[in-house]
Amino acid sequence: MTFSPELEAKFAKMIGNYPPGRQKGALIPMLLYAQDEVGAVTEEVIEEVAKRLKLSRVEVEEVLGYYTMLTREPRGRYHIQICTNISCMLTGGEELFEHACRRLGIGNKGKTPDGQFSLEEVECLGACSWAPAMQVNYEFHYQMTPEKFDRLIESLRKLQ
Amino acid sequence: MKQTLLVPPHPLEKRVLTRRFEYPRTEPVWIDEYLQTGGYEAIRKAMSMEPEAIVEEVKKSALRGRGGAGFPTGMKWSFVDRRSPKPKYVVVNADEGEPGTCKDRILMGYDPHRLIEGVLIGARAIGACRGWIYIRGEYREYIEIMDRAIEQAYERGFLGSNVLGTGWEFHLSTHTGAGSYECGEETALLESLEGKRGNPRLKPPFPATSGAFQCPTILNNVETFCAVPDIILNGGEWYASLGTPRNGGTRLVCLSGHIERPGVYEVPLGMNLLTIINEIGGGVWKGRKLKAVIPGGSSSPVLKADECDIPADYDSLAKAGSMLGSGATVVLDETADMTKVLARLMKFYAHESCGWCIPCREGTTWLKKITARLEEGLGTERDLETIDNISQNMLGRTFCPLGDAAAMPAMALVRKFRDEILDRIRQAEAFAPAPGTQPLVVL
Amino acid sequence: MANMVTITINGRQITVPAGTLVIEAAKQAGIDIPAFCYYEGFSVQAACRMCLVEVEKMPKLQPSCALPAAEGMVIHTESPKVVEARKSMLEFLLTNHPLDCPVCDKGGECELQDMTFRYGLGESRFLEIKHHADEKQWSPLVFYDPARCILCYRCIRVCDEGLGVGALGLSYRGVSAEIIPNRGDHLECDECGWCIDVCPVGALTSGTYRYRSRPWEMNYVPAVCTHCSNGCKTTLSVRNGEIIRANNRDRSGINGEFLCVKGRFAFDFVHSGERLQTPLIRKDGRLEPASWSEALKAAAARVRASIERNGKAAVIGSTRTTNEENYYLQKFARQVLRTNNIDHHRSGDVITLLQALGGREGALATVQDLYTCDAALVVGADLSQQHPLLAVQLRANWRHHQSPVFVISAGPVREDQYAARSIRAEAGTEADRLEELRADLQARRNLVILYGPSMKGEAVRRLVAFGDSLGIPVKYVCLVDYANSRGALDMGLLPHLAPGYRPVEIPGMTLDAMLEAPDLDLVWVVGANPLEGGRRFVSRDAFMIVNELFLTETAQQADIVFPAMSLYEKNGTVTNVCGEVQRTKAGPKVMGTKSDLEILGLIAAQLGFDLGVPLPDRVFEEIRREVPGYNVPLALIATGGAAPTKPPAVPAEVDAQPELVRSSGDTLFTSGTLGKYSKKLGEVIEAPGRLYQVLVP
Ligand SMILES: Cc1cc2nc3c(=O)[nH]c(=O)nc-3n(C[C@H](O)[C@H](O)[C@H](O)COP(=O)(O)O)c2cc1C
Ligand code: SF4
Ligand code: FES
């Protein structure tokens, strides 16, 4: 399998970032970037990455199950991660998450039937001073409120 | 339009690391601006110094690691055997996972070249040939900023096969994490860097002798490295004088929670905790009263309001039974529900335990289940004893400090807010089992 | 070399080499420190925290499995703090453990159960709902129950470090962490089952043993594996005459706890429905069941007739029968049938080796030598596929002592993973490449050379000459096929050599000559299948008697078939590939069968010959007296040890007949004719040879 030329170039550079014979270092970045492009860490991605880094399949799977950002199941086009850890919890993160569940009609780690949105309650996103915080894909949204959330969803829907 | 994460400067702040952060900028300081404002002067100076002298300067600065453990940085660097035939490496811990902490993102997001310069100086001090900045996966934005800054540094000859024309070869790149708090622990981070699960490693050997790819390595937090250029430029003594004895310099404090002006501020080490909250942070929000403070990230034991009138430095907080940790300061007002706080934190640690050792894997999960039940209102008094005892059984016995990080706040919360939690239990008495019988099982 | 340090454990001073792990030092002092994840010989994990001890001047309890002993250390392993910590670790472990001991295979021999009994709390404080994950089947032989797993990582380590297969990994995290197999939902591996064995709890269970018995209902019988030539001790768990499982948990024997898929699982042929349980006599062209007395009488009569008319007789012996049987069989051929027409399926050129060594003592490597030698050279063999124990030994030697392995083989082998040098050479040309390794090998303190069946005759002589020229002590292993291939040679199942390789006056027919001879009158085949693949004796009219377990191609052509016992059903000794003699004991019973020794004894008696009492111990006594090299210490083998034999001097003029050496080329998952009757082996066939090609990119 091949990836987009940009990603191929990135991978080519990335492998050189680790000492000779230790290309395994590139495993986690490769899986994450491949997932961003393909939508999930599919069987094909596992095989391909294992082949390129000269790893056994089990070495890839060990990592795959460990890191929460890696997934075998495709997420929604917009993956919404809402932090409910301490700072966000104190400032309305849990309410925001519950609101999001109601608004999208899905629960934690759920996906809307149209595949547009998926939702996940996550641990601290490192945005505590701007709590409550959430991420849509890799984009942060700070000091969220249910109203701001609704407006965001609306604007994302319009983008399609 | 991008939102600024900066705050207007406060007169009590001492801006060293954040001196280029004029509010309300949204864009990072790129290389030209960095150079115009004295950037990369420190590495030029460091190149003219003996490596030992660099380490000596850092030792004098009384700089302590800003990642959480507060280990003296100069001492850590001095453990690396420069004569080892193996390549030496520098690793930056930008995993920023400790709940309440959001400072490394600011440093990388607004002044990325400062980090690069700090890394270069550290690399020079140990004779390293390569470095990695391990950035948590969620911070793609900052990975991209660092990537661009690194590219600029390569273009201008600050990185590459001939740094500043001195013939020294040093390479630097970012490395993304993919969602794991434990990967902030230094040896788990190294495992992750090598493409494995974030299981911690056995120590010794310490990273200084066997770190990244089994080679001598220095590993420090972003903020730690960012402090280094000024130490080299202005001298270790100058830096040390900004703080208190053995607690040199300034530090970034991340104010969050029930506070009027949350944000990331730079203050001298040793500034009184209440001053930070009331003056810089504008006090508890909504005019409410202070109930408690988590002074160093979620793993630091909570302080009750009346315990907060102390200097915020490593030693004073340790004396108060807590820790400065990662500089995250979470403020809780009088309405804060401590049972909920307890339950939420335990859920976090259970989720983030790597599972390698028994006491952490099983202990965090058990704590999570009991505290969730308490929050539901289905606890008994005995549960408090159990929480305390489980925590003690974990403390100091787990493979890595994550177990302690869960046990310490749990113990502090059940001890200091025992009455409040008991009240919660009593309120739900109608549903509670008859005295002497086993409580209901929920979950 | 090692400097010694003195430490104090529980008030007792012990002196150990610096760096010895405290848990090991304690063991030497007779102090037991409980542990789950610590496993001797494998990497330290320090994960279970059961082994925490108190060390004076150290604030925290220390894992003794990861703590090197240092001068003056004062350690307490039973202090209140330690006892309390242990209790809490067990309490933690049990929180999510299903406590299904009453139905768990491991019940009664479970380390968690034992440790809880010894060190645990009497009551439970855990009131929450347990974390659960469903059991999974990974292969016909390996099942995994994550709920029971305590994550000690032993399984991962034996597979990865011990075997170099690396089929197991760890995935997910926290309380959800579990062991995963290498092919998504299933395993593709050697299926050796070592992981099942080392699992301290019932998390990994065996497809053949699951839910079949309780450990205390079985008798444990020390047998030697019948399959390959390595001579692994396999302890048979026998209940009511039936083998329920095989393993070697007591680590007796040369293999410790290691067994390959055949040793651990392929015992099921014993109770196969196809076992012959009654003698057969050909009547009107068909084999019909007969009683033992009828068959014995018929056979004796036919043998007597043949002797009387001076008919040409031929005897083909077995590579899986005991030394006693082989010895008795050649005596039967030579004294009763008065013929040297006796042979067997030869699979390695041992004769040339012995000739080249000229009786030199200490030139045959033992299985233990493979673990202690300073270097090993493997020529023309795929060790991991064909000699699993020898491969494991070499690997352990490399892991523990960094002793290098050099390979000259026709294709990729698993040893390539860690070999200091691997050379590819077409079969038969390996000897041409030896010189390339001279410098490397000369630099070592000593060497063991193992060679496969592609090396014979001149090539073996060149190999020994090369070894001699290195100027370092060199020992040899000639790789042969089956449990007693080596014993068959030593016991003189050869047309030109009597026991101990003593030339006979008038050599008899070789196996090939027997098949081609036009004038045979009588053929007796014991535990061999020379007619495999539709071959026939040219002497179609020769009367054929066959002792067999199954109605093999050969047995189908017989006139009389005696239902024989397998190696697991009888007592005796066998000699492994390294020339080490071990005793094997009778475990299961299969009704209607007799040992080959008994069959031959009965016939000889009926014919009025005295070949000695056909009892294994008596025959072995004679072997010790009569067969050069076999005067082994009885006490050693009686207590389960392996006694190396001395290489007998084989006269230079003896024809080694290298052209008769033809290995059957078995893999990990085949075992000649016998293998076809093991259902389990049939179920797990993994494409042989593919595995290590995946691992070595
Ligand atoms: C569970 C755990 C999580 C940690 N997470 C972080 C982190 O996110 N960032 C960080 O800089 N240090 C973290 N640390 C501390 C590091 O292990 C290490 O002490 C630090 O990176 C060293 O750098 P310093 O000396 O500059 O502080 C963590 C420690 C533990 C035990
Ligand atoms: S399967 Fe058994 S041996 Fe392997 S880690 Fe789990 S408990 Fe240990
Ligand atoms: S044996 Fe030491 S931690 Fe498990």
Summarize, please:
Chain A has 160 residues and is of the alpha+beta class. Chain A contains seven helices and four strands, in the order ααααβααβββα. The mean pLDDT of chain A is 97.
Descriptive notes:
The complex is a heterotrimer of chains A (160), B (443) and C (697). Helix content of chain A is 47%, strand content 11%. Chain A has seven helices and four strands. Chain A has a four-stranded mixed sheet with strand order 2-1-3-4, covered by helices on one side. The two termini of chain A are 28 Å apart. Chain B has 443 residues and is α/β, with parallel strands linked by helices. In chain B, the strands form two sheets. Chain B has a five-stranded mixed sheet with strand order 3-4-2-1-5, sandwiched between helices. By secondary structure, chain C is an alpha/beta fold. Chain C has four domains: 4-93, Ubiquitin-like (UB roll) (Roll), CATH 3.10.20.740; 111-271, Alpha-Beta Plaits; 292-340 and 489-567 and 593-631 and 643-664, Rossmann fold (3-Layer(aba) Sandwich); 350-479, Dimethylsulfoxide Reductase, domain 2 (3-Layer(aba) Sandwich), CATH 3.40.228. Helix content of chain C is 27%, strand content 18%. Chain C is built from 23 helices and 30 strands. Chain C is globular, with a radius of gyration of 27 Å. Chains A and B meet through helix 2, helix 4 and helix 5 of A and strand 4, strand 6, strand 10 and helix 13 of B.
The shape of chain A is: elongated
- In terms of DSSP E residues, the strand content of chain A is 5-15%
**Cα radius of gyration of chain C in angstroms:** 27 Å
**Radius of gyration of chain A from CA coordinates:** 18 Å
Query: How many domains make up the 3D coordinates of chain C?
Result: 4
Please bin the fraction of helical residues of chain C: 25-40%
Helix content of chain A: 40-55%
The tally of helices of chain A reads 7
